[in-house]
Q: What sequence folds into this?
């Protein structure tokens, strides 16, 4: 069945360093969504990408959707402690469900 | 900002007992969902509900699970006879337009109900 793979599972960074998570789908996606889940919290929508090759920015966060609409990435520049959490990508598996990546946990080293 | 509310926030139950988790989706949303997240793992789709019926369900959503919209506001998930492996965080979510090929509609999640089966 359709799968969404996300790597890495964890990334430890010093505060101020950059962070990147990558997402790959086994099928072409009509769109991809990114969510952030703080420790102990629930997923919160960050952004949706729809167009091939699309790049969107939210302050220090840069989201890309691949030309083939099968991969995506999230890059955070100069991480801050408020960025801590798990970042999930998700793509539509049908009209009614999202298929989620396993998430990348961002850990800021003390 | 409108919220999806879930109760209880935490439920502890004995194996074999029935559990009902409750959700109040955002009032003008039409599509409702239950997702499950085992501790530290990915978010897994359970079921979607539209127009008072199940529109899609996953393999996880077996005969032990059922959903209901008993009135105009509540959306419930029932687990008939809980198993140890049902221990997880259960998230309710809702949106206006489903997912679809024309651009997904954002999912708004509730804070979750943590189920612990002993």
A:
């Amino acid at each position: 069945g359709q799968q969404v793979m996300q790597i890495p599972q964890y990334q430890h960074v010093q505060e101020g360093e950059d962070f990147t998570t990558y997402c790959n789908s086994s099928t072409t996606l009509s769109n991809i969504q990114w969510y952030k889940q703080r420790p102990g919290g629930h997923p919160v929508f960050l952004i949706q990408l729809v167009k091939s090759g699309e790049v969107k920015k939210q302050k220090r966060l840069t989201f890309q959707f691949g030309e083939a609409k099968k991969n995506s990435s999230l890059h955070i520049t100069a991480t801050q402690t408020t960025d801590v959490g798990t970042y999930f990508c998700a793509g539509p598996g049908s009209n009614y469900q999202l298929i989620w990546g396993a998430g990348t946990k961002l850990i800021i080293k003390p | 900002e409108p919220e999806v509310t879930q109760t209880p926030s935490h439920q502890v139950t004995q194996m074999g007992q029935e559990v009902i988790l409750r959700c109040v989706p955002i009032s003008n949303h039409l599509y409702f969902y239950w997702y499950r997240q085992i501790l530290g793992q990915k978010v897994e789709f359970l079921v979607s509900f539209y127009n008072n019926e199940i529109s899609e369900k996953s393999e996880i959503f077996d005969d032990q699970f059922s959903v209901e919209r008993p009135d105009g506001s509540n959306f419930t998930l029932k687990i008939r006879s809980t198993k140890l492996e049902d221990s997880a965080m259960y998230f309710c979510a809702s949106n206006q337009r489903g997912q679809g090929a024309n651009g997904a509609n954002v999912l708004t999640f509730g804070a979750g109900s943590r189920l612990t089966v002993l």
